[in-house]
Fold each of these.
Amino acid sequence: MNTASAPMTDEPSLSARETIKALGAYVRPHRWAVALGLLCALVGAAGGLLQPLATKALVDRLASGETIAGILIALTVLVVLGTAVEAFGAYVLERTAESVVLAARRTLVGRLLRLRISEWERIPPGDLMSRVTSDTTLLRAVSTHAVVSAATGAVAFVAAVVVMAFLDVVLLGVTLGVIVLVGGAAALVMPQIARATERSQEAVGEISVGLERSLGAFRTVKASGAEERETARVEAAARRAWRHGVKSAKWEAVAGSADELAVQLAFLAVLAVGGARVASGEIPVSTLIAFLLYLFYLIEPVSKLVDAVTSYQEGAAAISRIAAVERLSTESPARQADALPRQGTAAPGPASVRFEDVSFRYRPGLPYTHQQVSFEVPGAGMTAFVGPSGAGKSTVFALIERFYEATGGRVLVDGEDVRDWCLGELRSAIGYVEQDAPVLAGTLRENLVFAAPGATDDALRDVLARTKLDTLVERLPHGLDTPVGHRGSKLSGGERQRIAIARAVLRKPRLLLLDEATSQLDAVNELALRDVIADVARETTVLVVAHRLSTVTGADRIVVMDAGRVRAVGTHEELVDQDRLYARLAATQLLAPAR
Ligand SMILES: Nc1ncnc2c1ncn2[C@@H]1O[C@H](COP(=O)(O)OP(=O)(O)OP(=O)(O)O)[C@@H](O)[C@H]1O
């Protein structure tokens, strides 16, 4: 079950190698665009380097009285071109960054709907949503700017160091010594940025989880007077996000000031050592001045390198959280076409279902929900599952749909183990109405054809009439095209159930699974639906879970379940005679004497 305030805190963060590998996988498809962005940045930087030289030439010509028109034009062209190239490079990088985010979102969304149900139960949907929306956004900076900053910063740094080495190796040694010392200290805080960012992103996930919890049960929250408590829950998560965001900002400020501090300290050290070397005549004063100028030139590449590492730390946190979703196991891809009923193909008739000594538990450590469950449903007709709450009736359907796999024994459809079926084909044979008859946001028509998008208007009209939804359609302002609200909130519970049944019937399944599908219907509608189901059962295998025995007394066979076991199988008349639990249920519900 999904808990509202427990995102996956047990997930291990990725190692640095794994993070870089994952980052490489995001950037690789866009390597040429990143290279182009890098080239533009380098050209822009080179243009910046040439400008002082051009300015110097201009001043020299002015001083010697030569014409400056040519050089002025050259300088203007240099400025305009440099700026244009830089702007183009920035655009290429932004576009690439957006493409990286899009690719990550597409991968995640593609996986989310294919997750195994057991995996989907591990992360609350709100947290999953925040990984798709918020965490992917953090990939933007790390995937392009960090890469380009690291490369341009490194090139400029090395170029400056080479020139400084020519000027004076001793002063270069002093400079690098100070930079390494300050850089080493700054490196210590870098993992703190990743940690704080990860906690902050977790808290953002908790905000989504909290909102999903309370907005998903909006009426219950209001009716329970729980608005303030729920608001406080979400606020607490928002405060946690703020706290960790501020912590990350603090460490970023520390790291961000390191570049300037390193250069300033190096300046003082070079001044002291260089001054002594000038005094002792080892180097001329002009060398010291040139060296100091280059030292200040270093500020930019060093700050770019620090920026790159900082963005990398933020991105690493996001990559870890995204990778956690990518590690969750998915069902083997069932192409959409496979999962839809094959209209027009040779219909092989009703499906048969057999459970052979099935044992099942939802997770290791939990008690068994099924123990040696065996029964057989040979083909068309109605089979009902009855028994106390928690007996394992709905779990029978979950195993047939292969939402979960049996821990022991075999579940067979058409004589074939469901594990050997192509998942798409298996599900395309089944129509399933789950217990709380979900209706999706959208129009009534979208809901009805959800499981059979190719259904004809005639088929739709026929199903509407049979499920008594035609009067509802007439009443709605835009008929079939009326929006039904979030989870069908603008409909009654009984209408939602009838829509869910109509949807399943429209799919023309070979096997129809109805889990408490008529529990909210009034007597008239229930009778009508009972007729529809009886009609469908003539050509289809229909399995129903029912609490109200009145709805299933006419079933071809009734499977009585209790505490994960099958107690008895028979018709209503047989079971009233042979099974005490069933007889008791019949006595209380049908007012017939228990034997
Ligand atoms: N996803 C799940 N994870 C863990 N346990 C579960 C899960 N779903 C159901 N269970 C447990 O398995 C047992 C059987 O559940 P199941 O829904 O099959 O019972 P049921 O007979 O259909 O009950 P009801 O008539 O109340 O719907 C229950 O004890 C339930 O708590």
Note: The chain has two domains: 16-327, 347-429+549-595.
Amino acid sequence: MPSTTSTQVPRPNGKAPHVNGKHFDKSKKYTSFGDGSDDERPRKTPLVLNGSLTNGKAHGPNGQRHKKPRPSRFNGQNGLVNGQQDGSSKTSLKPSSIALQAQRKSLPIAKGRQALIDEINKHDITVLLGETGSGKTTQIPQYLLESGLAGTGIIAVTQPRKVAATSLAERVAAERGTLVGKLVGYSVRFDERVGPDTRIKYMTDGMIVRELLSDRLLSNYSVVIVDEAHERTLRTDLLMASLKRIQRERNSPTDLKGKSSANRLNPLKIIIMSATLDAEKFSTFYENAKIIYIKGRQHPVKIFHTAQGQQDYGDSAMRTFFQIHTDRPPGDVLIFLPEDIESLQKSIQVFAKRLPQDKMEVLICPMYAAQAPIENAKVFHPTPPRTRKCILATNIAETSLTIPGVKYVIDTGKCKEKRYLTRDTGGGFDALLTTDITKSSAMQRAGRAGREGTGFCFRLYTEEAYSKMELSTQPEILRCSLVSSLLQLKCLGEDLDELELMDKPDDIAIISAYKSLWLLDAINKNKEITPLGHEMAHFPLEPAYARAVIASKEYGCTSEVLDIISILSSSSKLFLDISEQREAAAEARLKFKHSSGDHLTILNVVRAYHDISQSEAKAARKDWCRKHFLNERTLLEANNIREQLRRVCSRLHIDYNTTCRDDEQPIIRSIAHGLVQNSAFIQPDGSYKQSMAQSLVKIHPSSSLCDKKVEAIIYDELIYTNQIYARGVSSIHKSFFATLGTLIQRQA
Ligand SMILES: Nc1ncnc2c1ncn2[C@@H]1O[C@H](COP(=O)(O)OP(=O)(O)OP(=O)(O)O)[C@@H](O)[C@H]1O
């Protein structure tokens, strides 16, 4: 990288200026890959047989394996058809649509379009391996539709993350020249845009697993595409296991014999897609399914590593950003961080102000799961002229996304990973821990550059560190709480220990999940689902909160409990936390504070906002939220969630209007029925001992109970930092637990 000395660039932490190539002098600190032309492709040797595709059959007559499934290349050579069968209308396209069609045809995948269709046609299950940006996620569903391979059914494309599902639906709808909700739709928790004409549906893996509850054969779908399968989320693993069963039931000729043609379902096609190297494992899981390798990336990505490991990834990311900003041509920057987004945002803002007037403006866009969807969507807005967008993202932006304008990626090499700390080790909860990323993640992150032109990825770790990274992350099923999934499986009449899974969770985790469901009365002693468990599974909520809603029916306070749970289920926090204004915020919110703790405090806010909404116009409501440091988006999102929960209540004959007026005890008790495992009792030193585990917890400083001592508490979650904090806390009488019978003793 050429060094420049003319610009006064900030010197974060008083360190030496970095513009003189401190970080990125290629000769000293960074190594570019090979000739610098590109990236890291999967180093497999794909097979091309004289222009015809390999037959991936790898089974002997008795099912024994005698040949490995061999990947095939689609590179536009060898006589493969070059995508002429585009079903889009050629007569009435607008200029923007014409540009999109041209773009579609220039994607690497387009060159092997017909051969790909033929292969998918031949096999019920296909494992598709392709590089980031080759066009898998946006094009394959369209090819299936255009070729008629999907029949009259819906094509589901599953994603591990909401933001990917919604943005892909937008993109593919635009490519089809239509609006989201018509031919192309999406379905994510608490948000769905589909209609009677929807044929391509982008959805989170959680939503399709939920659909199994009402339709255990997924009869509306003719193809299920499991995208980003290498992420191995818990729901993806459950889905892959269920798909095996469904395909057996739907595709088996013996099953079809006895059925009248009216009762017959179309066979189901399964496509497992991944950009990384796990194809063999997926293929083996599906009885050596055919592997197809889509060759090529549309644009190269040049990768740099630091010469030394970086101690402070935040500082290092900031200096790298400013080096790009001063030395490199226009193009937006995407920085991957595990946390501390807010502090990096502030540091960049402060230093950006000191840049010379003639420099481009810096526009910072944070992106993380707990932020409201509408805020996350801002990263997709066009970058204003003379501005460089700097996106600060967690691994929410790591897969499937194309963020237009992004040319540079800065990868800190860290992420937050959910891990279940078992009760035996003093935990009993999912903790988010900062950890090193895997090779798969590093490749995905680099793949976010180079989507619209040549890209650059700056890794804040050494090449050696990269080479030592694990290939891919440990499947979630081996490290996360299984309670919610187990409940859904029980409803389907299935069991975790009987399910044909790619990886089996360990016995301790399974037993712990059974215990939790039993404590929530969702299953009985014989591990059979109870009527209450069935009701709980109808709610798109964590089982604990579903239990609270059902308990509220008995206590006559469903209206209040729905108000609280809707806020707790929103994607962003209700109380804005602005570090310089913490005292002012606490003062402004005093009027909502409830002596029993945070759940009733939330209810006070919801009620006050409701009153304001009745009497004031939109601008005044906004102003009221600002003055009280409240996130209005959370309140609006909660309105939407409450509506959906009310619909579920109606289906279950729960009167959602019942209210206990000013008596708080029924509300706390209802919530405590759900949070019974999240309870703790005061100790002589003022800390609280978990009722279901050995560890001591403290009340989080953000809680309205933090300066009080009460005999027992319930809490929404535990935060694991240098000590364990309970967050979302309410005080409860110890006697409540006695009313639950011998529950606690049973646990102890
Ligand atoms: N929203 C968008 N705006 C602009 N271009 C886009 C958009 N979405 C997709 N593209 C273009 O289509 C290409 C293929 O995207 P697609 O998501 O289908 O790739 P992919 O093979 O599934 O890769 P990945 O697994 O990394 O998402 C991108 O590289 C980009 O050029």
Note: Residues 427 and 488 are 24 Å apart (CA to CA).
Amino acid sequence: MSTAPPASYDAIIIGSGQSGNPLASALTAAGHSTALIEATHIGGCCINDGCTPTKTLVASARVAYLARRAASYGITVPTVGVDMPAVRQRKRDIVSSWRSGSEGRLEKAGVKVVMGKARFTGEREIVVDLVGGGEERMVGKKVFVNVGERPVVPDLVGLSEVMEKSPDRVLDSTSVQELGVVPGKLLVLGGGYIGLEFGQLFRRLGAEVTVVQRADRLAVREDEDIAECLKGILEEDGIEVLVGSQATEIKMAGGEKLELTVKSKDGLEKKLEGTHVLLATGRRPNTDTLDLDKTSVKVNKRGYIEFNDDLTTSVEGIYVLGDVKGPPAFTHVSYDDFRILRDSLGLNPDGKIVTRTVKSRDGLVPYCMYTDPQLGHVGLHLHEVPAGTKVKVAKMPMSYVARALETDEPRGMMKAVVDAETGKIVGFTCLGIEGGELVSVVQLAMMGGLHYQQLADAVFAHPAIAECLNNLWGYLEDV
Ligand SMILES: Cc1cc2nc3c(=O)[nH]c(=O)nc-3n(C[C@H](O)[C@H](O)[C@H](O)COP(=O)(O)OP(=O)(O)OC[C@H]3O[C@@H](n4cnc5c(N)ncnc54)[C@H](O)[C@@H]3O)c2cc1C
Ligand SMILES: NC(=O)c1ccc[n+]([C@@H]2O[C@H](COP(=O)([O-])OP(=O)(O)OC[C@H]3O[C@@H](n4cnc5c(N)ncnc54)[C@H](O)[C@@H]3O)[C@@H](O)[C@H]2O)c1
């Protein structure tokens, strides 16, 4: 260990995630000496192996899908081929341009970036195991933890042997993006965001795909009707979907084949063969290597850091941001954590003091699963409406939407939940073309506290998808 005294900073940020970077720039701009420590890539999961690369791959897969359907638009496309190295290169190029953009912004802001893995040695004392070797010790008046999550490796008999013998066949959300060939048969464990986005995109790129989902339905947060509709769409795309199914064992089955044993809820066993398996059964927080036991920072039993409404923790001067707080784990939530701290720490360049908190944004955090069609949602699902609250529900198939028909993409449905007394919208889901964008329109109406009738009477451009918000309310029913 180095004997030099630790470098002293006003602020140390551990993790260059979606909140760590803007916070580092804002602190530096406000005159606070700031160090940002990053173990791997500047920009964190979102731009390196999360949102940006997946949505880039989803876009390539959608082109393949549309090209195969070209005849239904009266267009002739002789053959549809997939050049996987080119698909991957497009993804790599976009990632590298975003990453270098982030690096450039930090440099321009004058942030001191330290590449290495940080761990605590005391309450606000840190040692960094530097990427190039050696270590750097530092102490901060304030420490911000933005270390994110990583994929879970599920407990599955035979998995470690297969990973040892054939590591290229066992994929997670990061390694699957680096494939240079389309898998022959992809077995996906997990029917959440990652399993479904990758499952569908690789199906479109030409793989056979089976999704094995332990829960009784896909996308467990959704109401059952939406989850069923999504399952139907994926099955129509040629994906085998097994819900209520637990993978019990995996082994090599001769040659390059894997054999996965799956047990359904009613006890039936099924053997699935595949060339690759994608582990998409959730993510776990990167707190296990932070040596938090050297501090009094409290973590819950799943390893997430416990936090207060203003993102303080159980230790004065230590703050937490992003996925490491626990769900919901989204880029827009992590970025908003930055805004909460920017305002509470007086870093807003406009000098504005806004008391924003985690609670004040609760209830209006949207999300969008980038299947095609997209599954967007904001507010409460019907199954989350508190007992005793009287609501009405409107459901409408996307095939009633002019724009969806004109573009020949009428799959899916939308669903709105409205407070029966006030007429205000309490939740909205769109599983349909540009569902994520439509949800943003409804989110604004919810932010403004509009009565649904104001959307029913709003003049939207024809034939924008949002025009369907004139008609949806005609289907409102008591529940
Ligand atoms: C495949 C995939 C697709 C996704 N798609 C979407 C999407 O479409 N929309 C969406 O909103 N969200 C999406 N997400 C989630 C989104 O990426 C995260 O919610 C987002 O990146 C926020 O993360 P964060 O700010 O908490 O930290 P992260 O972005 O996870 O960054 C944490 C950083 O900390 C670093 N780190 C960890 N430990 C240490 C340490 N000890 N010392 C130093 N550095 C450390 C890590 O290397 C990492 O760079 C996706 C995630 C995945 C995996
Ligand atoms: N578009 C987006 O916003 C987006 C995209 C990707 C990831 N993300 C974020 O990343 C997080 C992690 O994604 P994820 O898909 O890994 O997790 P998830 O929690 O969304 O889904 C995991 C699914 O795996 C199932 N499962 C768990 N163990 C299993 C097992 N042994 N066998 C079969 N199924 C099993 C669970 O029932 C669950 O439905 C998401 O919750 C989300 O916050 C967001």
Note: Residues 159-281 form a domain with the FAD/NAD(P)-binding domain fold (CATH 3.50.50.60).
Amino acid sequence: MRGENMLIDHLNARIIKEKSPIVVGLDPRWDLIPEAIKHENLKAYGETFKAVAESILHFNKGIIDAVMESAFVFKPQIAFYEQYGIEGIEAYYKTCQYVKEVGGIVIGDIKRGDIGSTSEAYAIAHLGETTIGNRSLKAFDSDFVTINPYLGSDCIAPFLNQCQTHDKGVFVLVKTSNPSSGELQDLFVGNTRIYERIADWVHGWSIKTTGNSGYSSVGAVVGATYPEELKRLREKMPNSIFLVPGYGAQGGGAKDVVEAFDSNGLGALINNSRGILYAYRKTGENYQIAAKKAANEMKASIVLELERVAK
Ligand SMILES: O=c1ccn([C@@H]2O[C@H](COP(=O)(O)O)[C@@H](O)[C@H]2O)c(=O)[nH]1
């Protein structure tokens, strides 16, 4: 498989070129969207899902445009859109489309996984193509999605198949950033913790799909809030790119994520959602200016920390 995997190599080439391993999480919250945007849509559509969806799209496009100089990877979390029904899902779809239009990469944070046949439908919906008679249509065209391995390997296989067919990628939940992630993930099965067992699976899948850059498009989600575990997991999954949430609002900082990277500054994508989207609420600036500054600062802190460690 080495060398055939283009998405991951393209991603790594851009991380190097743009010196940016950051991901901007697009988690729109109605109560935190600037009043001026909401006002315009409430006037046009009243207190409806349509007004919310239009506001979300306006806000997201503004954020994407503002941070493009320091970020090219975006992670919309689908739950924030689903709560606004069909219109919310449309805003999710259009957000993904807009990221693609401006040359960005989309990680659909969908955290899916079910029995094999249902996982296949999820995988087709978010990574593949739906067949209707003689036509094949893309439903949601993400580059990567997040997946939940709790149902076992047959729930993962359909996603891996779509990755191979359509040159897409997945991030498997390994050690999540939330405070109670250890309740299940840290339990021992024999001498191995559950999250380590999942890391072994991910490693097994990733070595079969490693690209020229030495990484696979089968990646792992590992929280910035567990830096010790992050370090050990880096050793366990040397070919997997990590998606690292937990930076910013959840307490993680540049020092906590540095072990996720290899000596070339590759191997990790660090996500920040609230800390960038709603930076304006702390600074009182225009939301785009504040988001741009927050993204630039995050990128600079991580680059500085990587340089410090490399010395
Ligand atoms: O372990 C995990 C997995 C996913 N997430 C998601 O990342 C963002 C984090 O948002 P912040 O505002 O930067 O805290 C959010 O979409 C989560 O659902 C995570 O936090 N931890």
Note: Residues 25, 27, 77, 109, 176-178, 221, 223, 245-246, 248-250, 271-275 surround LLZGTKA7 (CB under 6 Å).
